[in-house]
Design a protein that fits this description.
The strands form two sheets. The protein has an eight-stranded mixed β-sheet, sandwiched between helices. A seven-stranded mixed β-sheet has the order 11-10-9-12-13-14-15, with helices on both faces. α3 packs across α4 and α7 crosses α10. β13, α12 and β14 form a beta-alpha-beta unit. It folds into two domains: 195 residues, Rossmann fold (3-Layer(aba) Sandwich), CATH 3.40.50; 161 residues, Rossmann fold (3-Layer(aba) Sandwich). With 373 residues, it is of the alpha/beta class.
Length: 373
């Protein structure tokens, strides 16, 4: 089968969506299929074509501002070329959706859309600017209502959101992402804690991810002063990549006011360095306001430590092991949950299996069904 995958961002760009798309593309190739990825060149890589066996990546030159808009506009010639070659077109929300649909429609090919997350009527809870949230909400509605032949929701939660926005249930397939875990093999916990400056008596809370309007890191940072007063030996590590400048500055200001040595705010780290902090931590905090899937929560669960997580979005579908669920959007709820974790007052859920082999086979099944219609 010849598959054209359209996405605005793809590795080496960092992020859970990028990781998932790469895992899919490589999984298709491993099963003997040919894949042509059409993506943008705006994140640290040049425009042009890269070829590795049956995987071809076409990076479209865009501009550093309004990059999603420019990708939709500039990618269409490459997508049309790929669509004539392909058997199926697989778009990815958000900016990968419109050009994938147009290219597939113009070439007369079957079209599918991966939906990572949609907010619909909940946009006011995340975006403070009324003009922006109106624009995003309308744009989101237009994209998901394009008549794709099938829609792949990455969680039951995302599938329900799609239905609430008017997408026919018969066209929605729920396919969870595969596994994601940081390799901590060979890292000694005692040495890791010592090397990172933590003592035996410290209780280390760790959170990590991309700062966005739905990630809730500002609420966890607001909980830190209260937690520090309740748990004198608590230590906090926030490993964050800047995305939303307003929230980043809010978090940075709170961290700067904490006593020296109590809280670390770090930029994104290589996986090997992140593994040391994961090994050293006692508790992971997932403060999200919404999650379409939740790779950070999955990685935290695999680490075998206590996970304090909100019950937002798909997180209850992903989190397993020792955990405490709290309501989203509340610094007090996170404080209470973190205190419960410190005291060992936790719930336990059986291990959940997420395998890329199953995920890839499920996508191929969706493609086969589309082509039979």
């Amino acid at each position: 089968m010849k598959i054209c995958l359209v996405a605005e961002s793809y590795p080496p760009a960092l992020g859970g969506v990028e990781f998932a798309l790469q895992s899919l593309a490589e999984g298709f190739v491993q099963r003997g299929h040919e894949v042509w990825v059409v993506t943008s060149s705006w994140q640290r890589h040049d425009a042009g074509v890269e070829q590795s066996g049956s995987l071809r990546i076409f990076r479209v030159k865009t501009l550093p501002f309004f990059h999603r808009f420019w990708f939709i506009l500039f990618s269409l010639p490459a997508i049309l070329r790929a669509a004539r070659w392909a058997d199926v077109i697989q778009g990815s929300t958000f900016a990968g959706g419109p050009p994938a649909f147009l290219g597939g429609w113009m070439a007369g090919k079957k079209k599918s859309l991966i939906v990572h997350e949609v907010w619909g009527k909940r946009w006011p809870a995340f975006e403070p600017s009324a003009p922006r949230r109106m624009f995003y909400r309308i744009t989101e509605w237009i994209i998901v209502r394009l008549p794709f032949d099938s829609y792949v929701a990455v969680s039951q939660y995302t599938g329900r959101c799609l239905e609430s926005m008017g997408v026919p249930a018969a066209r929605i397939s729920v396919i969870h992402h595969g596994n994601s875990q940081v390799d901590v093999a060979g890292i000694d916990p005692v040495e890791a804690r010592k090397g990172l400056g933590f003592s035996d008596g410290d209780f280390v809370y760790l959170t990590f991810g991309r700062v966005g309007i739905s990630k809730g890191f500002e609420y966890f940072s607001e909980a830190i002063p209260k937690l520090a007063s309740l748990i004198p030996h608590a230590r906090f590590v926030l490993i964050l990549s800047g995305y939303d400048r307003r929230i980043w500055e809010r978090v940075r200001k709170i961290v700067a006011e904490t006593p020296e040595g109590q809280c670390k705010l770090l930029s994104s780290l290589p996986r090997a360095e992140l593994a040391k902090y994961i090994t050293a931590a006692d508790c992971f905090v997932i403060p999200s306001l919404s999650e379409g899937f939740g790779f950070s929560a999955l990685e935290a669960s695999h680490a075998g430590k206590i996970v304090v997580s909100t019950d937002a979005g798909a997180l209850p579908e992903v989190v397993f092991g020792k955990h405490v669920f709290v309501k989203p959007g509340s610094a007090q709820a996170l404080t209470d949950g973190c205190v419960r974790a410190y005291k060992g007052d936790v719930d336990i859920a059986p291990k959940k299996e997420f395998r890329w082999e199953k995920t890839v086979e499920s996508y191929l099944g969706v493609f086969a069904q589309m082509m039979e219609r």
